[in-house]
Amino acid sequence: MQDGLPKVCIGVAVRNGEAILPDVLDSLVRQSFPGFVVVVSDDASTDSSFEIARQFAARDRRIHCTRVDRGIGAAANRNRVFGFCQSPYFAWVDPGDLPAPGWLERCVGLLEADPGVVFAHTAQRQLGEDGRPLTALAARHPAEGTQTADRIREVLRHMAGTAAGPGLMRSEALRQTGLIAGFAGGEAVLLTELALLGRFRQADEALCGRRGLGGPVARRLPPRVRLAAVKAVAASPLGPLQRLWCLGVAARAMPAGGRRTGR
Predict the structure, then answer these.
(1) Distance between CA atoms of 230 and 244, rounded to whole angstroms?
(2) Which of 41, 180, 202, 245 reaches 20 to 30 Å from 84, CA-CA?
(3) Which of 154, 17, 174 is nearest to 97 (CA)?
(4) Separation CA 97–CA 249 (nearest Å)
(5) pLDDT (tens digit, 9 = 90+) per residue, 67-84?
(6) Which of 45, 73, 95 is the last residue of a domain?
(7) Total number of domains in the chain
(8) Which domain holds residue 37?
(9) Where does a domain end: 65, 95, 125?
């Protein structure tokens, strides 16, 4: 790592989020881990989102903001903000997320403790629309094993079709993926690609709150998500037998029907 380069870059992609953007930026500047920057990418908001980001940036030099004048969509905006990352670790934090002060420090510790881990996250707490904490969701510890096929199965079963919370990733691993596809369920495809590259690790503490958690999970993966996951496996550098095994897993995978899950 270059001298003076923050260890973590956090990307906040926003469009018309003036009602909740201050809350997430407040939660980020209060993180106990000191070595990070925040890049806010505004997707042609018609409200005061960009001005709010600029006000935070004026008060805290760790916050930087950028804007596009014509809307590019949520997935493209999240991918765009990653393009500014020069740090070894990266996380997307959405305006609906409220990380506790120890969230980032805990995730950094998980990555630092095991170089084979590419994605670190914590259990979550469901928030009301007003931001009040509601139910803490138990950690499921998906995709933590050494078998690639098991990781793919667990990602598509327990992390697809949910209101997935933020995780800290190795930037080097993230650059080997196609990032977030511009269709519903695109994040599940990205998680599949990451699971092909290494293990996940989840802390039991509920250190991140998220609005909208706890809803029902779709009983079947959208065909487009399933097909993209299969293509990701087919393009991976796995050996022939392991690739064949993983292709079968991806083709048959479906979310845990009727359960409420989160990460």
Answers:
(1) 10
(2) 202
(3) 17
(4) 31
(5) 999 999 999 999 999 999
(6) 95
(7) 2
(8) 1-95
(9) 95
| Three-state secondary structure call for residue 12 | strand
**Residue 121 · residue 215 · CB < 8 Å:** no
Q: Is 74 exposed, middle or buried (0-12, 13-18, 19+ CB in 10 A)?
A: middle
pLDDT at 129 over 50: yes
Question: Whole-angstrom Cα distance, residue 199 to residue 137?
Answer: 21
Q: Distance between CA 244 and CA 102 in Å, rounded?
A: 41
Q: How many other CB atoms are found less than 10 A from the CB of residue 8?
A: 24
- Same domain flag for 69 and 130: no
The model scores a pTM over 0.85? yes
Q: Which residues pair with 127 in a beta bridge?
A: 133, 211
Contact criterion met (CB below 8 Å) for 7 and 87? yes
Mean pLDDT (whole number) for 114-126 = 94
pLDDT of the residue at 259: 42
Residue 32 located in a structural domain = yes
Taking the C-alpha atoms of residue 137 and residue 98, their distance in angstroms, rounded to an integer, is: 15
221 pLDDT band (50/70/90 cuts)? Answer: confident
Beta bridge partners, 200, equal: 119
Looking at 74-222, list the stretches that DSSP marks H as alpha helix, in order from N- to C-terminal side. 74-82, 103-113, 148-158, 171-174, 186-197
Residue 131: Cβ-neighbour burial (10 angstroms; 0-12, 13-18, 19+): middle
12 and 67 belong to one structural domain: yes
199 sits in which H/E element: strand 199-211
Answer whether residue 255 shows pLDDT above 80: no
